[in-house]
Amino acid sequence: MAELYISELKYLGPPSQDFIEIAVTKDTDVSNIQVVVYNADGTIRSVNSLGSVVSTLDGKDVYVIDLGTSATFNGLGKGNAVALVDDGAVTSFVSFNDRPPVTATEGPASGLTSTQIGQAGANESLETNDGGASYFTQINPNSGIIPCFTPGTYIATPTGDRLVEELAAGDLVITRDHGLQAIRWVGRKDISGARLHSNPQIHPIEIKKDALGPEHPCRDMMVSPQHRIVIDDIQASKMYGSRQVLVPAKSLTPNSGITVANIKQTTYIHILFDHHEIIFANGIATESFHPNKMIVNGLERAIQEEIYQIFPNLRTSTTAGYGPTALPALSVTEGQLLAQTIWDNSQADYHLA
Fold it and tell me: Quick check: bond before 217 cis, omega within 30?
């Protein structure tokens, strides 16, 4: 029997940001599946079909309903309820803790009262990782973007380059400044098609082979937009007082070999050490995860707890807590100015650290 559930809901804010994400067993016929949005008084607000698959992940086809994918969807508010209907039978009927439960007065859920699944703020969503049995508050991806790698990236280790997705806590990695260092924690986050679709700013950045010099990187790679790359250039010294700086990947698009990746889903993987480290990924110098207070606050609560178990001072610290970055770190705007200066001038002496 096919598995079918509401995997994520964004319901508070302008309708242009609202979405309903549905997960269903791969290759399931969804022609008889509908998502019905109910008003607080139990009447129907909209009836929506699933349309086209946005992505396929972990054996599930993922569909998204929003203003761009459904001609009938007109937003989702805190007083609304959502019914997932399979061939006329309601498989799920949920609403939000901001308002009382909704009792449907018409349509397929008529006579049913919604189950409240939680509450999210204007820049948050509700998401499940157990097939709809429970939901947790997911921080809006805008504030939850964290520096991380994607599968297929090779990390330099004392036993040779290893795929980032194969690394685990305790494995040794070559660092630029502190020799071999053991990984303290590895985190993974599957980024659904719905989240990419509704938040194009979190699409990974693709760095093509040789984009930063011969064999830098040695093969194509993708990182999250805020993942910082080491740039070593005289212009950085002139502009920011240090020849070597960390620059967010999204700032480097003035380089023709660095672009926003055109993909439907991805997984972000972050590697944490005792200190912020410069490590080597596909032959280029880049950063490990730096869990400052702002970034940790943007993570899912379960992930926060995992990190707090390793670095308890982060729980109460109101400042950096974890320590400084390994090199001066530029903002996105500062990085863009540097990148434009470097590549607009086509500097012949450009090289990586």
Answer: yes
Model confidence over 270-301: pLDDT tens digits? 899 999 999 999 999 999 998 876 677 656 66
| Weakest-pLDDT range from 5-14, 24-33, 55-64, 112-121 | 55-64
Backbone angles phi, psi at 138, to 5 degrees: -105, 120
Strands (E), 89-239: 89-95, 115-116, 124-127, 136-139, 154-157, 160-163, 172-175, 179-182, 185-191, 205-207, 221-223, 228-232
- DSSP 3-state assignment of 43? coil
Give the global pTM. Answer: 0.60
Q: Which two tokens mark 194?
A: 């719905």
Find out whether 266 and 114 touch, Cβ atoms under 8 Å. Answer: no
Find, among 288, 287, 295, 286, the residue nearest to 320 by Cα: 295
Distance CA 350, CA 230 (A): 12
Determine contact, residues 245/264, Cβ cutoff 8 Å: no
* Close Cβ partners of 159 (under 8 Å, ≥ 6 residues apart): none
Give the Cα separation of 96 and 280 in Å (integer): 45
Residue pair 342/253 in contact (Cβ under 8 Å)? The answer is no
Among 179, 142, 130, 136, CA closest to 157:
179
Residues 6+ apart with CB under 8 A from 247: 228, 229, 230, 231, 330, 335, 338, 339
Amino acid at 42: G
